[in-house]
Specification:
The protein has 322 residues and is of the alpha+beta class. The protein is 29% helix and 21% strand.
Length: 322
Amino acid sequence: MGDIVFAQLQAIDLSRLSCREPSEMSKLLVACETDGFFYLDLRGISSSPLLEDWKKVLSLVDRWFDRPLEHKMQYHHGTVLHGYTPVGSYAGVLEGTKDGNETIKITSEALAKPLLLPDVVSENLELFKRFNAACHSITIELLICLSDALGLQGEERYENSHRKGLPANRCLNFFRYPKKSMDEGKFGQNKHTDNGTLTLLLTEQLGLQVFSVKTQAWENVAPIPGHAVINVADTLRFLSGRRLRSAVHRVIPVFEPSQQNRFSIGYFLRAEDDKVLESSDGALMTAREWHDQKYVNYKASHDVQRTNSVLLGGMKLGMTAA
């Protein structure tokens, strides 16, 4: 790997968290307070088909992305909430460029309305529902563990801002970074923090980079078989009174000679739409309002993004704020 610098992230075992092992609970809390990123070992959850389903949905979505753009654009609904988004819709990594990824976004609400879904999902609905439910269950379990570790009670518990049946823009997002998009001047995904609560990322390829507050440099997140990558997002940072760190990250795809695309799957856990949050500057807003404000900034030019700190979760542009 030459001079590639890798982030030294904690690896936390989900099966040990499920048993509430004190040492694993402590590791989880420290990882969320310091790095805001950690590996989650999924290999001990033998009752869950998540790892097997990951391969299945990835294979299906890979073939779907190969379809003509005209077919995929049938599912471009003109909203950031669900459906297909083509390459070049947001700001890219390099100054003055657009992003280099295309996506399929599937909200939990859309899974109940097959007419909104790309055909690859509607034709394999039970598989995608099962995969979505497994990702959701894991992220809620992490919230419960964090609430326990912090001794939170009642409405202060993080999972109580993510109640079942209430509107919330949680979703699965399938990302493909075509190698050819780099030749078109569209490259990667610009630096940002995620707008939700927790993100569960599944990938087998390099490309994800996290900004280290320790070294003040970008570090690569190496994929580990059988592990997800978890990161704290803005809502959890706000809910914790900025105790937990919403980490700045970006994507710069790394392609092996035989690879034509980079893939990743993200599950974005988000709070109830009406949950009131206090941002870094003391302003009050709902979780849905923060989501919408972030997406306006994702789409903006680099010049506009520099005029505020919304892209980085309200933190200083030097990315050193807690």
